[in-house]
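Z., the sequence and structure:
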Amino acid sequence: MKIWAKVMVDGKIKKQYVYERNDELVYSKFFEYISEICTALDVPTPVLVKAHIFNFAKFNHVKFIASDFVESISFDHLFLENLF
């Protein structure tokens, strides 16, 4: 499993990280994946709701905007893409 995480500002990638694990993607562990990704990127962890998981499962990507974070953020959005 690979997830490409991108921190976007004004349509440009400011930080990126490819999260890799040797096991298959398990949606019940999705928050764990996001927490590890955000720690690696040194950004706050967003609030995860069911719609985020459904978007990732159906469209292979999810976008976290400012309203998805409890803390203030210094970027426009966090974009996660499934690289299979």
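Strands lie at 2-9, 12-20, 61-65, 77-82. Residues 30-41 form the longest helix (12 residues).

Let me know what you think.
H.
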